[in-house]
């Protein structure tokens, strides 16, 4: 499966995409993700956090390859945040997740290839 999310950069050139839409009783095994922006901006960045904890900040904000493994598990209470910086107001930021969704605690091996 794939899930695509987007956000618009504010006047400060920051766009935040907050992902917390995993249905109750389900979990998503995210094997990879990618981030991009509608317009290439030199020096743009993207920081990813899971429940407020740093996952990666090495992403080029205007477009970077999909990450993985290891896979990460998103439950209904999990918040995954992509924060883009160095953009121009109005730029679109996009985060794409690739993985599988299953009932909570019944997911396949998180090292699966999707």
List the SSEs and their pairings.
Layout: E1 2-8, E2 15-19, E3 26-37, E4 45-50, E5 53-60, E6 63-67, E7 72-75, E8 80-85, E9 92-103
Overall description:
By secondary structure, the chain is an all-beta fold. The chain has a single domain, classed as Sandwich (Jelly Rolls). Helix content is 0%, strand content 57%. The chain has strands spanning 2-8, 15-19, 26-37, 45-50, 53-60, 63-67, 72-75, 80-85, 92-103. Strands 1, 3, 6, 7 and 9 form a five-stranded antiparallel β-sheet that branches. Strands 2-8-4-5 form a four-stranded antiparallel β-sheet, with no helix packed on it. It starts with a strand and ends in an 11-residue tail after the last strand.
In short:
The chain is an all-beta fold and about 110 residues long. The chain is built from no helices and 9 strands. The mean pLDDT is about 85.
| Total discrete domains | 1
Q: Taking all residues together, what is the mean pLDDT?
A: 86
The counted number of beta strands is 9
Question: What's the overall geometry?
Answer: elongated
* CATH-scheme architecture: Sandwich
Question: Helix and strand succession?
Answer: EEEEEEEEE
CATH class: Mainly Beta
The helical percent reads: under 10%
Rounded to the nearest angstrom, the distance between the terminal CA atoms is 8 Å
Strand content is: over 45%
Structural class: mainly beta
As a whole number of angstroms, the C-alpha radius of gyration is 14 Å
CATH topology: Jelly Rolls
Unreliable parts: none
Q: Could you describe the largest sheet, including whether it forms a barrel?
A: 5 strands, antiparallel
């Amino acid at each position: 499966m794939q899930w695509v999310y987007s956000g618009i950069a504010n006047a400060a050139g920051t766009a935040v995409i907050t992902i917390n839409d995993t249905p109750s009783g389900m979990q998503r095994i995210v094997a990879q993700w990618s981030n991009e922006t509608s317009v290439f901006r030199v020096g743009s960045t993207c920081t990813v956090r899971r429940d407020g904890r740093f996952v990666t900040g090495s992403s080029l904000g205007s477009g970077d390859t999909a990450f993985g493994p290891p896979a990460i598990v998103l439950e209904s209470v999990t918040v995954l945040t992509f924060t883009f910086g160095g953009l121009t107001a109005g730029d679109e930021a996009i985060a794409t997740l690739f993985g599988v969704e299953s009932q909570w605690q019944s997911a396949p091996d998180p090292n699966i290839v999707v």
